[in-house]
Specification:
The chain has about 150 residues and is mainly alpha-helical. About 80% of the residues lie in helices and about 0% in strands. It has one domain.
Length: about 150
């Protein structure tokens, strides 16, 4: 019986991973880079909610997949804003939105880590560090602006 449960859990995890990549592909299809950034951050928040639910259900594999999706989403959001070529100080709307969303995402990741078993917290360490790094880069861009060449 446990063999069947394992196969079922593996199939559900793979289906969840395929759905996650499909969601990110839909976000990548957005032509407007600023909107793509917002959609990617929305996807990261959704992936965090899914990771919490999976952790409560005891599905560590899905938690790992969803945290990877959070990282990919945050990177996509940041890269999309960078590709606009806009100066964050002169056009702060989307940069400020991304900065606030990444700050909130960092806070929610820290809360999630506190709710996790101590041994399971390592799953979130890499993603938390990356989200904090993106937040700091966005904040620096808003405060300093682009370097003059």
């Amino acid at each position: 019986m446990t063999g069947k449960r394992f196969v079922l859990a593996l199939a559900l995890t793979l289906a969840g991973t395929a759905a996650a990549s499909t969601e990110l592909d839909a976000v990548r299809a957005e032509a407007n880079l600023e909107k793509r950034s917002k959609l990617a951050l929305d996807n990261a928040a959704s992936a965090l909610r899914s990771a919490r639910e999976a952790y409560q259900a005891g599905d560590t594999a899905t938690v790992t997949a969803k945290t990877d999706e959070i990282g990919e989403s945050v990177d996509l959001a940041y890269n999309s804003l960078t590709e606009t070529g806009k100066n964050p100080r002169k056009s702060p709307k989307w940069f400020k939105h991304a900065e606030m969303e990444t700050r909130e995402l960092t806070r929610r990741l820290e809360d999630f880590a506190q709710q996790m078993n101590y041994n399971d917290r390592a799953i979130l360490d890499k993603i938390r560090a990356r989200v904090e790094q993106v937040h700091d880069e966005l904040l620096t861009g808003l405060m300093e602006g682009r370097k003059k060449k």
